[in-house]
Amino acid sequence: MTKIAILLSGCGVYDGSEIHESVLTMLELERWGIKYQCFAPDIMQMHVVDHLTGEVDDNAERRVLAESARIARGNILACDKLNIDEFDALVIPGGFGAAKNLCDFAINGAKHEIAPQVKDFICHFSENRKPIGFMCISPVMIPKIFGENAIGTIGADVETATAFNQMGGQHQKAAVDEVVVDEVNNIASTPAYMLAENISQVHSSIAALIKQVAKMCGETT
């Protein structure tokens, strides 16, 4: 049976994984009959945001793994516990945690670096030619992982697309429910909440991405 890893980055759109995207990813995998396991890096969050006010709480500290466990209902492993032989693919939801905790794109843009634990985790999949699905803001890591001419999309945001290209990638504009596939690198990406105006549009985006990743794993409808 196909089994896919989900890489989370905390809990909450402003400082962690986007919850709708994460849960809809699990739902779509389950609808395909695909098993999944959530992972997260055991590192500190960049900061903690009050999701009611949108303000940073300077007095709070939280760990990415512990916060991600909220979404996974406790069924989660640290990135360094990955046994790559058990998994067929990887999916990475968005949310600002992908740009703050998995990497520091939110601060450094095109000059960002991916957290070492996270880069090692993703590279286990890329080096073994296992499909990776990126959504929302998480595709900004594509050029850093796959190098020159790697193809991906974050939708239509000009500033983010420019940074993607500055890193050596080839950004392709896409509608919210479209998936851009890089056949050379065995990866797929979709805009999700980078373009979506509601949860229904996000669902369409993620359903399309999971369908593509499933097919890349050899699953059929």
Morphology call: globular
Rg from Cα? 16 Å
Q: CA-to-CA gap between the ends?
A: 14 Å
**How much helix, percentage-wise, in residues?**
25-40%
Which blocks of ≥5 consecutive residues have pLDDT under 50? none
- Beta fraction of the residues? 5-15%
Biggest sheet strand line-up = 3-2-1-4-5-9-8
In round numbers, the mean pLDDT is 97
Oligomer: single chain
Q: Tally of extended strands?
A: 9
User: Structural class of the secondary elements?
Assistant: alpha/beta
Provide the succession of SSEs. EHEHEEHHHEHEHEEEH
Sheet having the most strands: 7 strands, mixed
**Count of helical stretches:** 8
Annotation keywords:
single chain; 221 residues; alpha/beta; 7-stranded mixed sheet; two-stranded parallel sheet; 8 helices; 9 strands
3D structure, described in words:
The protein is built from eight helices and nine strands. With 221 residues, the protein is of the alpha/beta class. The strands form two sheets. It has a seven-stranded mixed beta sheet with strand order 3-2-1-4-5-9-8, with helices on both faces. Strands 6-7 form a two-stranded parallel sheet. Helix 1 (19-31) crosses helix 8 (199-216). The longest helix has 18 residues, at 199-216.
